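Lab meeting notes turned into a lecture example. A postdoc, R.K., suggested we walk through two folding results consecutively so the class can see how the record format repeats. The first protein's sequence and structure tokens come next.
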Amino acid sequence: SETCSGRCNAALDNTKPCQCNSACVNFGDCCPDYQSLCVGGGGGTPDVTCDISCLANQLWDNDINRVQVWEYEINHQGQTTTSSTSDQAAQSLFTYLQEENVFLKPTYSTFLALLDNYTPSTSVAESQDAAEWIEIDAFLDAILATDVMNHLYNFLVEHGHVTDATSYREVIKELWFNLYARSSSGPINSSGFEHVLVGETSSKVSGFHNWIQFYLEEKKGAINYQGWVSRSQPLNIVAARFTWNGLSKAKGSFFVGVSPEFDIAIYTACALTKPNSSCSFTMAGTSLTIQTYDVAHKSGLQVATAYPNI
């Protein structure tokens, strides 16, 4: 029973002491001969050939919608700490962005249409009407047509997390757009998209790990950027201290300049392969860790939060 003979690529079988599909690599329950029979060509199609670092580099290299260095400028001054009580930044984080070049791209324009669908306060229940689901589907149509999301799809199929395009889309919806309660006894008040990419508030700011939302809120005066706590220069990741509508965020980290599809893809990969844990990999020659958490009181996997841990 502890063999993959005749079982390569078979679905999970809890009656067996070990498994013979690509998911066993993640769960550590492969049969002793899995590599030789199922991956090495002895008994089935090769399974896992691309790990999380491999995928991360595919996403980075194929993010053709990433903002070019000449299309924006950020303020690198004003180092601070999470415990500081003074504003260390003399000016805003974003000092320039060629909106006319960036925001007309389909994945950006459909992303922007979603931002006003949410109420940041977690004390207010959320709902999604038909018009908002049309906007969500338009965004999904736009990002799923990109090479970035195609590489994620191939990775998730290879690792046993989705089976086809239909299940892929449903997994993305469940992770990011289906609403849930942030506490087991609270109202239906949140989603992965709202928390991570829009931001939420209670007595302070929570989530808010997206550069586009930061730029827009800063532009209209809702954000007071108070300095950077840490940053990763090669990948242009910033961990900023700021206030949003008067409420504080001691440290909010986000990739700067990446496309909406890149954020969705890298956080999805980590949420599915390393839920509730650190997801470490090397991308563009730089070591990086993404932290994700699931919604513990709801069945299945959802994105409670996800962010670069720098």
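The second example is placed directly after the first for contrast:
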Amino acid sequence: MSFYNTQSRHKTQWSVTFKSEMNLEEYFARIGYKGSTEKQDLETLTDIFQHHIRAVPFENLSIHCGEKITLELEQVYNKIVRRKRGGWCMENNQLLSWVLKSLGYDTSFLGAYVFNPHQNAYATLMTHLVVKVVIDGKAYVVDGGFGVSYQMWQPMELVSGKDQPQAPGVFRFTEKNGVWYLEKMRRKQYIPNQSFSNSDLLEKKECRKVYMFSLEPRTVEDFRFQCTYLQTSPDSLFTKKSICALQTTDGFRALIGWTLTETTYNYKENMDLVEFVTLEDEEVEKTLKEKFNITLERKLVPINVKGSYTI
């Protein structure tokens, strides 16, 4: 906080200015980033992005422990950076956009419609917020808020029909009549615990549609209704499942209800290792702390209604 005075012939007027409570150094400490921020290039963007997705979980636990998810940036910052929580797309990607914009990147928001594999259709409600970044005239999609195996590990160049191999698999954008589609091709899966081989959490198709979007710029205000709907509607995926997912250096781990999964990418040639464990109630809190570095302030009520979500 700083004070300054302005003199007039009749009185002294004091004004107060407040320094923003959000700062990049605190964010970088949260994600463990110690690299350079001098250049606004793809290499720096990728490095920051990968630190973020390996430190900040994709999670909706607030819904299942009596907290309200907000779109106010300062509250998102406080939740993720200070309380060391995670968030869903509207939180993770809004925070990432603020970081990148503060560093001098050219960023904007896009809105996507998520594909539902059980209905074999895209959602009719625009619920997914992503970030577009332009570097040296090239556009990239940066999405740190999808989680599990559909979480990209690198910014994706916004170009149609080009395979973009990453550690999680091969991603690809396809554009038709101004609409962009994201899909991902995965490897085969090795599941040691065969009792989970038919789990509804497992994606059966090797090529999976993820979401579709247009290039129309969006604002956070465009997601106000969706933010409330997703955390209150009985039809929402997020009220049916408690989800916490975190990317690792060689895969990802996820806690869906009481089911803990740990995936190792390319465990063998063209094969991912997917390990399942069912937790007891008393193990959930400990697992969140040990596997996801999350300590909740309120009691979590795990839930996992069958269907609508695959890892």
